[in-house]
């Protein structure tokens, strides 16, 4: 699958960097880094499984004669910046060539400095903060989009389809969770729309006070920046309170765990994401292979697969 077709020259240079110092080595170590515990574990597991499937496929294909890729998966950062830095320091002591990750922007940014110093290639799948790739790191790449892209798409959608509606914009104060709402609020105000802006605390279980305020204010459309666990709880509790609002959110909702939290309350929820890679004709064989191995052909799984291919 060639999700990175538009960057063939960069991909060729990337492959050269990864293999140049180890062309005659039997084993080349790559790693997955990201959350497999905590409230953002589901996307992390998708990335880990996609990277593992790609490593197995490449090793079986004979594409790299005399070279065997070995994937390290003992790099759980729980989307915590301090844990991410510790993971990066540990990974870079083992002759690593490539890191697929991290997931959260707040983890990818501090970890990327460590990988850059060690000359380890990093390809992030879902860290959407623009500053990640605007700091001049030559070893850092991203497969996913950026907050400013998602924010622009969401704001334009709201203005086009819900002009004059009562709007709210929420964030969880995290690097990723706040980035997109900031952009949306700015664009909505520029379009003449008034928004109620409020933050919420990630990790809570009860958001009924927040939902009650949204209902009391007559909010019809609410954009929520954050992660699927908390957004799922807010959506479910809003449905239980008959708040009658439409929730729009960002890309972490691309997991069945969100629906497991919300139940039928998820109906009508919208979220921004990159073009669905399962519908890319160039990736049909990979999608079929993943489904045949019982792995979900989900967005992050395929993006991780493509990152290892590159």
Describe the protein in words.
The relative contact order is 0.15. The chain is elongated. α3 (81-91) runs parallel beside α4 (105-117), α5 (147-162) crosses α6 (175-190) and α8 (228-240) runs parallel beside α9. The chain contains 11 helices and 10 strands. The protein has helices spanning 8-20, 41-61, 81-91, 105-117, 147-162, 175-190, 208-216, 228-240, 256-262, 284-292, 299-309, and strands at residues 27-33, 68-72, 98-101, 121-124, 140-142, 167-171, 195-199, 221-224, 246-249, 270-271. Mean pLDDT is 88; it is low at 1-16 and 18-24. β9 (246-249), α9 (256-262) and β10 (270-271) form a beta-alpha-beta unit. The protein starts with 7 loop residues before the first helix and ends with a helix. By secondary structure, it is an alpha/beta fold.
């Amino acid at each position: 699958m060639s999700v990175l077709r538009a960057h063939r020259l960069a991909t060729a240079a990337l492959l050269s960097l990864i293999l140049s110092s180890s062309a005659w080595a039997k084993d080349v170590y790559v790693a997955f880094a990201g959350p497999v515990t905590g409230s953002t574990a589901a996307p992390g597991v998708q990335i880990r499984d996609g990277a593992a499937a790609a490593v197995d496929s490449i090793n079986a294909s004979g594409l790299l004669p005399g070279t065997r890729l070995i994937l390290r998966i003992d790099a759980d950062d729980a989307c915590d910046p301090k844990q991410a830095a510790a993971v990066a320091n540990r990974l870079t002591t083992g002759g690593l060539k490539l890191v697929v990750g991290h997931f959260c922007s707040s983890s990818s940014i501090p970890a990327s400095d460590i990988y850059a110093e060690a000359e380890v290639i990093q390809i992030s799948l879902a860290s959407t903060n623009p500053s990640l790739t605007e700091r001049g790191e030559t070893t850092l790449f991203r497969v996913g989009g950026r907050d400013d892209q998602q924010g622009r798409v969401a704001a334009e959608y709201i203005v086009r389809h819900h002009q004059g509606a009562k709007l709210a914009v929420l964030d969880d104060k995290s690097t990723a969770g706040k980035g997109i709402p900031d952009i949306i609020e700015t664009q909505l105000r520029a379009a003449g729309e008034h928004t109620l802006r409020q933050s919420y605390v990630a990790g809570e279980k009860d958001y009924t006070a927040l939902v009650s305020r949204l209902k009391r204010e007559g909010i019809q459309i609410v954009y929520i920046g954050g992660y699927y666990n908390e957004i799922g709880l807010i959506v479910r509790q809003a449905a239980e309170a008959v708040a009658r609002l439409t929730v729009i959110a960002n890309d972490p909702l691309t997991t069945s765990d969100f629906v497991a939290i919300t139940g039928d309350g998820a109906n009508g929820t919208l979220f921004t994401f990159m073009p669905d890679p399962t519908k890319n004709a160039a990736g049909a064989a990979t999608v079929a292979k993943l489904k045949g191995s019982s792995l979900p052909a989900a967005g992050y799984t395929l993006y991780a697969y493509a990152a290892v291919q590159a």
